[in-house]
Amino acid sequence: MLSSVFKIVPFFTIYSILRELIRCYSAGEKFSFGSVKLLVVITAVSALLYGVCAYASAMLSHGAAFDILYDLRMKLMEKMGKISSGYYTANTQGSIKKLLIEDVEQIEGFIAHSMCEVSAAIATPLLTIVVLLIVDWRLTLVSLLPIICSFIILAMALKKPDGAAHQKNMADSKAKMEGTIIEYIHGMSVIKIFGGTTNAFKRFERDMNDFTKAVHDTAYYNANGMGLYYAFFGAQVLFLLPAAIIMLNNSASYSEVLPKVIFFLVVCAGLKEPLENMMNVSIDSTKINVGLRRIDDLLAEPEIALVGEGRKPESFGITFDEVSFAYPGSSVKACDGVSFNLPQGSCNALVGPSGGGKSTIAQLLLHFYEIDSGSIKIGGVDIKEITHAELVKNIAYVFQDSFIFNDSIEQNIRMGNDKASIEEVVAAAKAANIHETIVGLPEGYSTVVSDSTGLSGGEKQRIAIARAILKNAPIVVLDEATAYADAENESKIQDAFSKLSKGRTVIMIAHRLTTIQNADNILVMDKGCLKAMGRHDELMANCELYRNMVNANDRRDSWSMRKVEKNG
Ligand code: ADP
Asked: Is 511 in the pocket of ligand 1 (CB under 6 A)?
């Protein structure tokens, strides 16, 4: 606001100097610099103060903007850990990335830049109009007339019934297109193989076309109103010049009116910019409103993590009691009245056909989703009464396709326990049979993992196991990887699994039945129901589904490729 004041002052002082100059010229006097010395000083000081104030406002607003950006991102990250995993199924990876990166950054841009512009955009035109009124109220009215007309036209254009709907449609289709682009890039290897026939490519093309159409529709819809608005908005000179000529013709003294005319021509041309800024600010705020709505929606997602103290389980047996659950938006129960009790320290395997509900059980134990009915308890304590931090502290989860962060291997393992010493990290890596591979890399434990590091799926999983070993959690959930590169890798992983499992309550999602025959409990899952539970021998005797699976597994293990001779 202050910078706007200091920005206007020089206009006024220069007008006064100009008036003195023209007065001297028409009176035939010699112009004396002494008569305008004070005005020159005021002009220089104002210009300087304008610079100082503008700089200070930019500094303050950027500081505030980055503080807010930080707080908001932290709040969103925290929130994302507390909501149901259904959110991640309902929203594409691309749209979540866009929310966390672009939408939040737009707010930064708005606070750092537009906020200052808002105050300048309001103060500058108002102050300019005051100055203009002081100089000559008639010329002021004439020069404001086209602006008033343009605003009336704009207001009428904005009030058109479908304007907001068009803007929303444009913003939504842009967000959708950007989400698809990110996914498209992620899936590039698949797309390269299947070319333009994949759904991803079709979706990509469709979303681009939808966005182009939305932009065209909005532009055509606004064409008349915006065209007229711009035509009037820049037309001050067209109105001012005839009025000035009439005033000059009717005036007794040229030297009175001429400086005013020159002043108005210069200042009115400059009035356009702050007024346009005012317009841009309102356009920017509509744009960030769409992003804000998405941020608000995420912040309003119901939290499933417990807030407050919570209870700490003393022991680590796991009980599912009549647990039923369907994924959000799905009518099929992925878990249908499942009950079991896994004693502390037992080794348990979940088996069953694909889609039977094995991974769902593991995810429900981690409280990724809220169950529809029943209860899940650890050491007799309902997981709903355990805080998120306590729950993740007690469970180590090794995913089938474990995510390795773009960070050093040391840090990737240390994620299991950020206070661990390098010796403990190395010990965990040795137990997970991955130490030799790590020291063989050019920078050993400091090697930053990227696509070019060349770690195989099995090696990545062993890093994930080292992470879990370091975590030293009393409950371990293992999703057995199906695609081992070779027999050596497989035996190393099995060995690492058994070291990780020792003395803990283990749930292993087993895709191959040979590895689990010694488990204390084998739970057979099919279509979301627990069909049977027991040791291998018991199930072989009593459970037909299990028997069939084991037999099929044996057949698969003895499978070999042979050439079929054509008849004749
Ligand atoms: P398994 O691990 O035994 O292969 P899952 O637990 O992954 O089986 O799946 C059980 C059922 O839940 C399947 O019908 C599957 O299609 C469905 N399902 C799995 N994940 C989701 C999800 N994120 N959203 C909707 N349905 C899902």
From this structure: no
Sign of the Cα pseudo-torsion (326, 329, 332, 334, in order): negative
Please, which residues have CB within 8 angstroms of residue 422's CB and are 6 or more apart in sequence?
410, 445
The amino acid present at 344, given as its one-letter code, is Q
Residues 517, 513: Cα–Cα separation, whole Å: 7
| Contact between residue 416 and residue 476 where contact means Cβ atoms under 8 Å apart | no
421 ligand 1 Cβ < 6 A: no
Residue 236 CB: number of other CB atoms within 10 A?
22
* Residue ranges of domains in the chain, CATH in brackets: 2-299 (1.20.1560.10), 309-394+515-555 (3.40.50.300)
**Looking at this protein, which amino acid is placed at residue 505?**
T
Proportion of the chain in helix, strand, coil states, percent, rounded to 5: 65, 10, 25
* Residue whose C-alpha is closest to residue 81's, from 284, 291, 491, 366: 366
Q: How much distance in Å is there from the Cα of 453 to the middle of ligand 1?
A: 32
pTM of the model: 0.65
- CA dist., res. 201 & res. 83, Å (int): 31
Token couple for 40: 């020159």
Cβ(84) – ligand 1 distance below 6 Å: no
Q: Pick the residue whose CA is nearest to atom 24 on ligand 1.
A: 327
The residue contributing the CA closest to ligand 1 atom 5 is 357
Q: Per-residue pLDDT tens for 358-372?
A: 989 988 998 888 899
Q: Quickly list H helices, 136-162.
A: 137-158
Contact 120, 274 (CB under 8 A): yes
Q: Measured from the CB, is residue 358 less than 6 Å from ligand 1?
A: yes
Q: Is 146 in the pocket of ligand 1 (CB under 6 A)?
A: no
Ligand 1 proximity of 355 Cβ (cutoff 6 Å): yes
Give the CA distances from residue 267 to residues 56, 132, 229, 270, 375, in Å, rounded to whole numbers and listed in that order. Answer: 26, 8, 20, 5, 74
Tokens of 143: 């020069």
pLDDT digits (tens, 9 = 90+) for 235-263: 888 888 888 888 888 876 777 788 888 88
Torsion of CA 408, 410, 413, 417, to 10 degrees: -120
CA of 370 to the centre of ligand 1 (A): 15
Flag residues of the chain having pLDDT under 70: 189-200, 252, 305-308, 451, 453, 481-490, 555-568
Binding site membership of 89 for ligand 1 (Cβ less than 6 Å): yes
